[in-house]
């Protein structure tokens, strides 16, 4: 059986696309790695209340073939159709879906910048802490410092405080006054302003200290984190000497914004662009078409911009697949994209963060490769790019395949991070590869190109 | 009606989990933050990214090593053990 449209990812973009396309009479298959729809932002416990934005969409999922716990590890062309190969369920069973069109709505994951002590238990991703709280009703501790950069931190601090944690400090490396310089984008997004005010209000009630232009430059402890050092940063994010002070905590929730999940897109050869924070994202035109005919993309994978933008892009993509368009949606996309670009520029990591690292700091958590070894590879062995550093040190060759350390290693090697290129988007049992009809996926080079059209153009 | 809690064990210790919780969430709720030691330095590790990306939370569950504890739903009677190194050393 061949679906008219296969949607990869059941977050806001994928859900919106699936219901919109099904509403236009298309035969839609929706695949998602998680057990329950909603994506990372709307994670919710089994048998618990379903978040309203998810409920609104899942109610309309009738007519959509929803395949939960299906992790798509590659998409390959097969004549006029696409084959999506999956690892399904806890037993990692093979599954394949055939479709005439594919929408990639694979979302994003959290950017991490290493610092001494970040491998201690109790140091967790900010988005991860929130996801574990939403999905598992679990808190890793009671006194939580939230640190890093980006608007997600406000949401995380609020969620943690509302769940009963004490958040003594929210430490933001950027300066919110940078938003003021981009006021037009903010003024056109009153909803976002209200959201920010809401976060501020509930934080105040929970007595959180907001420190901008500051960073956690070290975590301390032996078997787990017991305190962090918070230091003031200069404009390049270099710690200002003599400003470090110790803040006791039993958890540090840290993250530096989100980066698009690109493997399936780059594996297909889709062109990428660079967002204002220096991160590669899938390049799409005004109707969410990638550079590869038959492949659409929507949501954070095209550039991080929040759930409302993701839903809008999902609807635009679905309409396009169905041969339709909406000027109102295009205008909304342009407005939300402008806001996302302003945020990305304000929170772009500045180069001085590498001064947080001492030589003993592990940069690659999987392979336990220290900053000293990476620097040695660059300064003494002549590595000029992240790939050579990887070959010399094994940084990025472990379980996570460089998802966590890739950005940091690229910076230490003096480059901007390259678009992710991983032929398999998740671990796949060897037996499944052996049973593929052909040799396997083509990992064609993905050109890096500016977006084919200005955002929102029709 | 609230879903009924159930029990599992971690390194022989009995823990209580809620239906729908991942293994990592159940361990966190019991105050356990580390359930793996690294291959080279033997350092303690637990959940970091919380969403299946980083693979730091690998655990041995019911004898099967290298399970991502943050993704794997906890089930009644699960036996979770600290994973040493690659999980294939023993």
TrEMBL record, chain A:
Residues 415-458 are annotated as: Disordered. Transmembrane segments: none annotated. It comes from the Bacteria. Residues 363-412 form the BFD-like [2Fe-2S]-binding domain. The keyword Lipoprotein does not apply. InterPro entries: BFD-like_2Fe2S-bd_dom, BFD-like_2Fe2S-bd_dom_sf, FAD/NAD-bd_sf, FAD/NAD-binding_dom, Metab_Enz_Cyan_OpOx_G3PDH, Opine_Oxase_asu/HCN_bsu. Keywords: Oxidoreductase. Residues 437-446 have a biased composition (Low complexity). Residues 4-304 form the FAD/NAD(P)-binding domain. The keyword Oxidoreductase applies. Residues 447-458 have a biased composition (Pro residues). This is FAD-dependent oxidoreductase. It comes from Streptomyces ficellus.
Automatic annotation (TrEMBL), chain B:
InterPro entries: 2Fe-2S-bd_N, 2Fe-2S_ferredoxin-like_sf. Pfam families: Fer2_4. It comes from the Bacteria. Keywords: Oxidoreductase. SUPFAM superfamilies: 2Fe-2S ferredoxin-like. This is (2Fe-2S)-binding protein. It comes from Streptomyces ficellus. The lineage of its organism: Bacteria, Bacillati, Actinomycetota, Actinomycetes, Kitasatosporales.
């Amino acid at each position: 059986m061949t679906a008219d449209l296969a949607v990869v990812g059941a977050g806001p973009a994928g859900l919106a696309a699936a219901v919109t396309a099904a509403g236009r009479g298309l035969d839609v298959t929706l695949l998602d790695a998680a057990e329950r729809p909603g994506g990372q932002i709307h994670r919710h416990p089994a048998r618990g209340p379903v978040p309203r934005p998810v409920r609104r969409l899942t109610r309309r999922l009738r007519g959509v073939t929803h395949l939960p716990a299906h992790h798509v590890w590659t998409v390959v062309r097969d004549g006029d159709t696409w084959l999506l190969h999956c690892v399904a369920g806890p037993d990692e069973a093979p599954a394949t879906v055939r479709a005439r069109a594919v929408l990639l709505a694979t979302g994003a994951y959290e950017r991490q910048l290493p610092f001494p002590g970040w491998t201690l238990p109790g140091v967790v991703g900010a988005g991860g802490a929130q996801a574990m709280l939403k999905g598992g009703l679990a808190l890793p501790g009671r006194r939580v410092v939230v640190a890093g950069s980006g608007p997600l931190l406000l949401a995380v601090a609020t969620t943690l405080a509302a769940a009963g944690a004490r958040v003594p400090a929210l430490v933001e490396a950027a300066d919110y006054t940078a938003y003021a310089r981009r006021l037009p984008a903010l003024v056109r997004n009153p909803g976002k302003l209200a959201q920010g005010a809401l976060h501020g209000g509930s934080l105040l009630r929970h007595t959180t200290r907001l420190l901008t232009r500051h960073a956690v430059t070290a975590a301390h402890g032996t078997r787990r984190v017991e305190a962090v050092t918070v230091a003031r940063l200069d404009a390049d994010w270099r710690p200002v000497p003599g400003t470090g002070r110790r803040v006791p905590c039993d958890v540090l929730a840290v993250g530096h914004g989100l980066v698009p999940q690109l493997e399936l897109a780059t594996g297909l050869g889709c062109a990428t662009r660079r967002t204002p924070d220096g991160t590669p994202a899938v390049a799409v035109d005004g109707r969410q078409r990638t550079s590869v005919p038959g492949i659409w993309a929507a949501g954070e994978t095209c550039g991080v911009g929040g759930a409302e933008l993701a839903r809008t892009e999902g609807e635009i993509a679905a309409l396009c697949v169905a041969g339709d368009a909406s000027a109102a949606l295009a205008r909304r996309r342009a407005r939300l994209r402008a806001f996302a670009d302003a945020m990305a520029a304000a929170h772009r990591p500045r180069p001085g963060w590498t001064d947080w690292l001492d030589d003993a700091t592990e940069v690659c958590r999987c392979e336990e490769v220290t900053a000293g070894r990476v620097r040695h590879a660059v300064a003494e062995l002549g590595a000029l790019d992240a790939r050579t550093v990887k070959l010399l040190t094994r940084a990025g060759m472990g379980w996570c395949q460089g998802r966590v350390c890739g950005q940091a290693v690229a910076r230490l090697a003096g480059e901007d991070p390259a678009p992710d290129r991983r032929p398999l988007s998740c671990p796949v049992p060897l037996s499944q590869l052996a049973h593929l009809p052909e040799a396997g996926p083509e990992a064609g080079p993905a050109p890096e190109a500016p977006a084919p059209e200005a955002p929102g153009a029709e | 009606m609230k879903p009924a809690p159930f029990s599992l064990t971690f390194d022989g210790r009995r823990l209580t989990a809620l239906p729908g919780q991942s293994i990592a969430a159940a361990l966190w709720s019991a105050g356990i933050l580390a359930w793996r030691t690294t291959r080279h330095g033997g350092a303690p590790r637990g959940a970091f990214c919380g969403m299946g990306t980083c693979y730091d939370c690998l655990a041995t569950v019911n004898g099967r090593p290298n399970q991502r504890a943050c993704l794997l739903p906890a089930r009644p009677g699960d036996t979770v053990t600290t994973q040493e190194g690659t999980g294939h050393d023993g």
